Structure formats: C-alpha cells, structure tokens
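User: Sequence in, structure out. Go.
Assistant: Echoing your sequence, followed by the structure tokens.
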Amino acid sequence: MKRRDFLKLTGMASGALVTSQLKARTSKTEEKKPNVVIIHTDQHSTWTLGCYGGSIIKTPFIDSIAEEGARLNNFYCNVGVCTPSRGCFFSGQYLDQNGAYHNDLPLNRDVETFGEMARQKGYNTAYFGKWHLDGDAKPGFLTKERSMGFTDCKYMWNRGHWKSVNDGAPRVSKEVGDKEHYTTDFITDKTIDFIKSQQDNPFLAVLSIPDPHTPYEVRAPFDGLVDPSLMTTPDTFDQQNTPSWIKQKFWHKPQNSLDKYKKSKAQYYGMVKCIDDNVGKIIHTLKESGLYDNTIIVFTTDHGEYMGEHGGLLGKNQFYQTAYRIPFLIRYPQKIKAGQVIQQHITTVDFKMTLASLMGITPKKASDGRDMAPLLEGKAKKIDKDYAVVCRHGRSPKSAFIGLYNEDYSICYSNSGKDHLLFDMKKDPEQLHNIFYDESAKKVRKKLTRVLVKHIEQYQHRFLWIKDHI
C-alpha cells in the first residue's frame, strides 16, 4: 500500500472515530433527563407577588422564575380548596376520576400521580411538607406504601398548618419555630439536602409549603416586616349583594376588628417574604450544584386567599376569581424562552400532561388534562378550550357549584337553585354586577352554559344536576 493511500485510509478511520465519539457525546447529552423542582404553597394569592403586580413586598427570587421562564396569567385551580385542588394537580384527573372531591378525602389508590410517573421512569422522587391527599389523618406522616410515588417521604405529612417541624418528638407543633425549625425554613433545608445528595440520577422534588395559609403567624424578623397600619381593605370589602349561598363573611363578625384584619394581612405578607427567601436558597443550591439549567422549576399554589374581598371573605372556595386564578411560573431554558407571558386559560388538571411532555416521558395512565407544553415552547399560540372550569363539590349537595372562566365572562351555577352568577370580566373585573338574570345577557348565558354542560357530560358527572337549573 502506498504511503498516500495509507494516510488517506487512516485519516478516514480517525475521522470516523472522532465523528462516532461526537455522536456518542451528543447522544448522551440529548438523553440527559431534566430534574424537576416544584415549589407548591398553600392559599397564596397573585397580588402578593411582584411578577403579578404586587408592590407591598419584594419577591425577587420568585419573580426571577418568571423573568427567566414563563408566567401564566390565566392559570386556574379547578377547585378552590386544598384537597380537591391538589388532587387535580397531582393526578391530572377531575374529581369524578381521582376521588378526592372535598377536603380530607384520599386520592383513589389506583391514581398515577406525576410522582409515580417519574419514579417509574427512573427518577429519584421526594416530597417535603403538606400532602392533604391521604384522608383525615393529622399530621399523618406518610410511609412509602402510601406516598403515591414519592420514595423519600420522611418529611411528608398529610395535613396541618404546623408552625414548626423537628427531627425529634414532637415532630410538628403549632408554636412558631425559629430560623432552623420554622416550617418553611425546615422543609426547604431538607429539600436542599436532598438536591445536594443527588449525583447523576435525575430527580423530582416537591417542596409543599403550608404558608401563607392561616394561622396568620410567621417567625421573626418577617413578623415585623410589614407595618399593619399601612394595610388597606380591598374595594369590595363592604360589598352587600353577594349570593345567598356564600356564608364566610368572617371579617365582619363581632369577634373581628379592622385592627385584627390589618395585622393578619401584614403577617400574610410576612409569610410570603419568608417563602421568597427560601425560594432563593433553592435557586442558589441548584446553581451551586451545576443543575440550574437542566432543572424544570415550577412555582405555584393550590388556591388563593380573598383577604376581605366581596363582603369581607376570609379564605377561599366561593367562585370569585381571586381564589381560583393562581400563580404559576415555570423555568426550563432548554425548552422555555425567557420572559414569556401566557394568556391561555390553563388549569391544575393540565399540569401532569404538560410536565410529562417537558420531561420527555409518557404517563402509563390516561389523563383528563391537556398537554400545554407547545404553548410554553412557543410552538403554538393557542390550544383549544381556552377556558377554565372551576367548581366546589361540597360536603352537602346543595352547597355545590360549578362555573367557567374565559377571556370575556365568568358564569356559575349553584345547586341551591338560587343566585346563579354571570359577570362581564372586561367591564366588571371585580365581579360586582351580576348580569345572569338580565335579558340582554341571555345569548351569552346560553352559549356559556352549552360549553359548561358539554364539559360536565365528558368529565364531571357529579355536576349533572346543572340540567335541573338551566
């Protein structure tokens, strides 16, 4: 063989080897699964966060998820109370399918949570904080047999808004803890320990913070961060014309006062500020560990808090928008362009399929929710069914309601048969003027009702009573 031919041959061989190595390296990179960190708070309204227009406190770390990822402006929980909202979020199924249709009912044991979905695909899974999907046990620390896919569940309890957590006994307490044991800090630190312990294996971790739910208490220095005297009541604080089926007018009861209201609101903001600082600790850990850009980071909550809206409502679950339109922020630079604002109506039941798509995996069990990843990835401007269905099943059939939000209107049917609601959300965003019974709204009412009934027939048969009220 001539030298020239030999060099040509060896050059081709070495080139093939390099190409093969590059392909292998590229393939290995492409196959690397994203980690997932979901920060899930409790009873947390959008008006507390800078990225949603809040200005009383600064929330730079939570806001950074929006700045570097996407903010969903119309993300709704399907139910405005803990257990059923969480059931839809973790299962991707509506109430009829997942079984957790009011507080303190367990998820059906055959449900595939997104934790189980990830575990089956080789992920290390962990859960820290409140679960509220295992019945009425309180605190009810979970075992692996009942944690529904979350293998690391030592700090996963069923329910209770405890103000301190310990490794010893008692493990939880209503007493406000210090920086090491206050619940938000403690479970964040445990989440950080878990993240640091992960090596090459992909992981999914849920940090479920019980704040800023009642009781309105937070540790120092956050308890003195906001001056109560500067707190104001919402414009609808003294509203009189609320539906007869709304009973939660706590702030106008004799045992309460305006001073108590202002102090509670200041503490609520303090809890949110504490949460933001801890989100910062999570972000810092991911950056320090070199995991930041290959981790899907989600910040959301189970439902909002009225804090005095609509006649002094305390709490949630009364159809008005503040309890249902909730924060949802997501960062994953490999697929989600920074600074996106998504206007499409998306709900908690859509989360599982969307997460699965971003992770590049397929759940074993079917979901009622939609895959909204094309919106986040910029592959679609809108997906069908641009509306959100919200409901309350209630412990008594007559306390149930179901409704729908879209870009222009919100409509609600009550099983009491009285005081159904219809609001023009563009002209009346505070939902003060009910036009359900106006002759001029008849056409709109019929159109929205058809959409709602079609949804019920497909997904939520428990609400077929709506046909008795049309």
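User: And one key feature?
Assistant: Residues 225 and 270 are 6 Å apart (CA to CA).
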